[in-house]
Structure formats: structure tokens, C-alpha cells
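Interim report to the steering committee. The following record documents the input for ABC transporter permease (406 residues).
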Amino acid sequence: MLNFIIRRTLYSVLILLGVVLLTFALFNVAAGDPAAAVLGKNARPEEVDSLRRELGADLPLFYGRYCKTEALPSWKAGEALQPGVSISEPDGIKGPYLVVTPQFELPEYACRTVRSGQTGYTEFTLDGEPFRTPVTGLEEITFYRIQESPWNSQFLRAVKEIVSFTPEFPYLRILDFGKTITTREPISTILLRGVWPSLCLMLPIFLGELVIGLALALVAAAFKDTLIDRALVLVSVAGMSVSYLVVIIFAQWFLGYYYDLFPVWGFEGIAYLCLPVLVGILCGIGGNVRFYRTVFVNELRREYLRTAAAKGLSPFRVYGKHLLRNAAIQIITRASAALPFLFTGSLLLESFFGIPGLGFAGVDALYNSDLQLLKALVITSAILFVVMNLLADLAYAWADPRIRLE
């Protein structure tokens, strides 16, 4: 058992690294420059450079000593030079070369020059012998900031946001994504603040879908091919066909505004959770009934159930004990896929009912183009899915002794 846990944990770590790499590619490569997206086109280069350095967007992607900088923008031939940089052409040299004034002669900066075309010659004397050397013209200057370690990259920073070591107790820092781009609030504070409302909303939905779905599926399987079974299947398919958004709008108007039975906005007490929980259960129960009914019908064909019934066991023991226990693998698999949403919440429910959970925070981050908060939510959700899958594998052995883990 211990070997299995260690092996599965190592597999989970590899999966997390793949998730980090994929998320890194989406947010750091495909999404473009986050500083330019937040500050806009009219921002000063110093502001862009400062935000880029804070977010680590100026670092090399994986390896390198040179970081991009907006403090000294690139120069091309024909453009005006920024203060502190000049092009001179002293006597004897026909091609221009770069001169940087003392205010920019800093150890942390370097420049790359691009030259093109032969523009002239420089003549000089060495040990009494005349020499003539061709000179090319200066076409472009690109400035970089030099960093000490070439391994300090954007990808390493993304890994350190998940886990890193610190010199102070507890010597480990987990899920430290820094601050949001828009409000400058610590992201860890937002995550901790949003977990409780999401749990209060999603835990009753999860338990309601699971218990009611299992009960109705057992009834449908017990009365297979009867009017009760067909009615339950018909209602389940109809519930799966109706859009989540339609149910939300109808419930808010019909039960909230028209009959005034429930409040429709806010998070100030249990009454504010009744309507969104009801909507969540109604929208999710149809899929559960269909799935569990299929599982139970397949199990009903097994010999052990016929043997249990032939021994005179009551239907409650046949279905409630033997059938459920042998179908536990499929139940755990489906339930484990829904468990991460207990913490991350529901985007639609939290947005339409004004519940300040993690789903609401995700919509707000998307609206404000806060890529740092979005990345934190995506990685947190991925970690929860990996952890729940690991726990589900361990639960398989508890539910079914036939599974040998070693």
C-alpha cells in the first residue's frame, strides 16, 4: 500500500509539472505582455518596466542572462534617441558608433547593436605600418538588463509560485501567487476569502445531487422497464437538456421576484443559499440519475445479486448493501470528479446570485483582465483535481478488496 501511495504521488507531481508547463504557455506566451495589457498603450516606459519586473514578465522564458527592459527602449536608424544615449562619428571613422552617457553606464544593463552595410573606412597606424579597416553603419540598438543567475526564468518563477523554500519557519511557501494586477491585493487573501462561500454553496449541492441521484437511480433500476423507470429516465433527460442559464433565470424570476420566496442576490445568511442550491441540484441531478441507473442495471445482471435474492434477503439489503457496495468504484469515480468544485465554486451560480466565492472572483478577474489571479485560480483548480484523483485511487482499495494495489 505504501509503495502504491508513493508511486501515485510521484505520478501526481509529474502531472502537476505538466499542468504548470501548459498554464505557463497559455498565460506567459500566448497571452502576451501582461504589463502592456493592464497599463495600456499610453503608459510611460518606466511604468511598464516596473510592472514587468514585478510580475517577472521581463525574465527569459527558461534560461538566459538578459532580461527585456522598457527603461531603455530599442532604437532604430532614423528614430530620435532617448536621453542618455547618443551616436557620434569622430575623426577618421566614417561609420557611427554608440555612446552612452554616464547616467546609463550601469552594471545591470547591456546592449546589442545591429550594423548593416559598409559605410566607410577607418585609417590608423600600428608599429609604423598604415592600416585601413572597413566600418559598417549602426542600424539598431537593443538594451537588456543583466541578471546574476541565468536560471532565474519565468518558468522557474511559475514553479516557485506553487511551492518554494524559505529561510524562515515553516520553511515552505505554498500557493503564493503574489498580488493581483488591478487591486494589488494578495492573491492568497482572495483565495482564502472565497473558499468559504464556495463551500457553503457547493457542499449542499454535491450532497443533494449524490444522495437524491443514487436514490432515484436505485428506484429506476429496481423497476426497470416499467412506467416508473421510463418516467424517471424521461425527467432526467429533460433536465439534462435544459440550459443551466435558463433554469437560473426562471428560478430567480418565478421563485424570487414573482412569489418572493427567496432572496436572489447576496451572501448574508442561509436563506440566500436556498435558491442557488435548489437550482444546482435540479441542474445536476439528471445526469447523476442517468449515470447511476446505467451502473445499477449492469450490476443487476450479476450472479451475486440473484444469489442474494434467492437466499431470501430483503430488497433493501440486496440493493442497499450488495448492489451499492459493488458499484462503489463507479460512484467514487463520478463523485471525485465533482469534489474540486466544492472549493472552486460555480461561475454561473455565484455570478447570478452575488455569492463572493472563487467562481465570482474568477469572473471578476476575467472582466478586469487580471491574468495573475486567473492563473492562480486555474492552477489551484488543477491541483485540486490531481489530489482528488489520488484520493479516489486510494478509496478504490477501501471500497473493493478485489483491487490489489501492491
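Residues 187-222 form the longest helix (36 residues). The committee is asked to note this result when reviewing the revised timeline.
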